[in-house]
Amino acid sequence: MTLSFQPIMWKNHRLYLLDQRLLPKEEIFIEVSDLKGCVQAIKDMIVRGAPCIGFSAIYGMALWVSAQDKISLDSCHLACQEMISARPTAVNLSYEVSRCFQLMKEFIESGKKNAEIYAALVEFGDSQIKFSQEKNFRMAEIGFNELLKKIGNKKWNLMTHCNTGFLACGSIGTALGVISHAHSMGHVSHVYADETRPYLQGSRLTAFELSKENIPYSIVVEGAASYLMSSGKVDAIFVGADRIAANGDTANKIGTSTLAIVAKHFKVPFYVVAPINSFDTSITDGSQIEIEMRPMSEITELKGIGLAPAGAQTLNPSFDVTDHRMITGIICEKGLIDPSIEGQLLRIVNS
Ligand code: MRU
User: Fold this and answer.
1) Candidate list 235, 242, 280, 320, residue with the active-site label
2) What percent of the chain has a predicted confidence (pLDDT) above 90?
3) 327 with 344: CB under 8 angstroms?
4) What separation in Å is there between the alpha carbon of 168 and the centre of ligand 1?
5) 92 and 193 fall within a common domain
6) What is the CATH number of the domain that holds 166?
7) What average pLDDT does the chain have?
8) How many structural domains does the chain have?
């Protein structure tokens, strides 16, 4: 997608984040100048989407280094912990921060100055964004070829949940990357974008991206899934991932698991699209994934307008885990994984 801005920009030693809370109405950037500001921006979902959270965290660590007179392994460890605590479910955050820690450790042990560590972290952030763009294109091609094989050479009706495009990934995207690529190849008839209650990543962000690309779409409420699939309106579903366990169980935005179960019932192919750094093969299955609980106000209010009786209680899990048996395929930059084939995920991820 061509936009006049990137959701994450590094300029003049500062991090600038597009405030995604204000989209689609306003396109405003927030300046982040230190570790605490970066942690808060991730918590408040100014920046969101597993890959973009990870990239922002790298620059946040660079900002932390630039503010230190002296750093030690202990202080690095504490700063990394603070960053990782911002949001628990997406593994990309801890993945990127652990790599920052490794880099800082090697530099400290070889007697490098803070300025050199800072420069190396900024370079690391830049390269991760660039590298992820290549991976996104690769996954888009794999997903497109799989659809050609599975559904055939026609125009497809596709469905997606949450936001997995440019705003979440800083490039073409994961699930939305496949859709966008398929559209550029002339193969998309229509896209159904779940509104994605309660934060509305679908109606605010995915719809924003689909309109920018002139892809025909309709926003639907999550409850429309069964209606759409039973009436044959969906050929395949693509979603992203925040953490994929070794057996293929996948944590993604709340509502994903329900969608996958309905898709299985109606025999609609259901694909997860995610880069290798969204996999957590240290856990055997999805029961070990921590699910982030978000504030009640995300359910009871919309832009300050009350939607529920005063004092209403809510439960607001931000993610759920889709059982790998509901997933037709997991697409990563190394290929297509069939989660029903035991051990295939580990073989491909570790290849
Ligand atoms: O809570 P968010 O908006 O940060 O949600 C994360 C996501 O965007 C999704 O769950 C997504 O499918 C994975 S990120 C490409």
Assistant:
1) 242
2) 96
3) no
4) 7
5) no
6) 3.40.50.10470
7) 96
8) 2
